[in-house]
Design brief:
The protein is α/β, with parallel strands linked by helices. The chain is built from ten helices and nine strands. The radius of gyration is 18 Å and the shape is globular.
């Protein structure tokens, strides 16, 4: 973890993301106080915590879900997390919208109680497939601490025009994740998203148009980078983080790939 935080800081990132799966080992190694000190020492001011499994479930999986929830909420408070990210049901099973809105509102209130916001990320193969679906859920839940995470991969693969981002209510945008991809999906959507994402400006997405539309909506928060690919994972951490930062920075500043990148801003390191 220390290596990743230091590499992110050196590349100009001012944000960092931590999965709930990685949290127990990090706490064992450093303690929450030690993690907070590492973030502060490296100039990390925006922290995302991610991953509460089956947060909508009242069945057999609830006990484990609640354990992760408690750990993440405790960490969010101790580390000063900006927000907590959750995902939809990737099995796309039958679901009750009323239950989901109630559970989302409950979790948003709990996140608000520890000083964080709650964002749901929509996936095109899940029960919350599009930006419209995500906004409907959070609006029905009705908690001001809740909103959506907009990932350019999921947004583009959901065949939503970039102009739609300009009309998203600003208070419902919890976070933005930048990345790119080839024009055609290879394998399933899940396989394509975890194995073949591209660095910003190196794929087929109109990332510039999406950024412009979000700026029109008033977004001035951190621009995070989420590159999931076999190519990215094969690189040393420092090289991977630097390449992800430089490519995203070039797109944000309207530069060509060959131009000198400027200030990184608040970008999120890769996983």
């Amino acid at each position: 973890m220390r290596e990743r935080i230091e590499a992110a800081s050196a590349a100009g990132y001012r944000g960092f993301g931590l999965l709930s799966d990685d949290l127990p080992a990090a706490v064992t190694a450093y303690g929450l106080g030690g993690i907070r000190a590492m973030l502060d020492d490296n100039g990390i001011v925006d922290l995302e915590l991610e991953g509460i499994p089956y947060w909508w479930d009242d069945g057999a999986r609830r006990q484990e879900s609640d354990r992760v929830r408690r750990d993440l909420l405790e960490a969010a408070e101790a580390l000063g997390a900006r927000h907590i990210k959750v995902t939809p049901d990737v099995d796309d099973s039958p679901w009750d919208r009323g239950i989901w809105t109630a559970k989302f509102a409950e979790l948003a209130a709990q996140a608000d109680g520890v000083g964080a916001r709650l964002g749901i990320e929509f996936f095109p193969w899940s029960n919350i497939k599009t930006l419209r679906d995500g906004l409907r859920l959070v609006d029905d839940a009705g908690h001001e601490g809740g909103g959506v995470i907009i990932d350019t991969w999921h947004f583009a693969r959901g065949h939503t025009p970039p102009s739609d981002l300009a009309t998203v209510p600003l208070h419902r945008i919890i976070g933005v994740e930048l990345n790119d991809a080839d024009k055609h999906v290879v394998g399933t959507l899940f396989e394509d998203t975890v194995h073949r994402r591209r660095y910003c400006g190196e794929g087929s997405f109109d990332v510039t148009a999406m950024i412009s539309a979000l700026r029109t909506a008033g977004w001035q928060g951190p621009w995070r980078v989420e590159i999931l690919s076999d190519e990215h994972r094969e690189l040393p951490v420092t090289a991977a983080v630097s390449r992800a930062a430089a490519s995203a920075r070039a797109v944000l500043n309207g530069l060509t790939r060959e131009s000198q990148p400027r200030s990184a801003g608040r970008l999120r390191p890769p996983r």
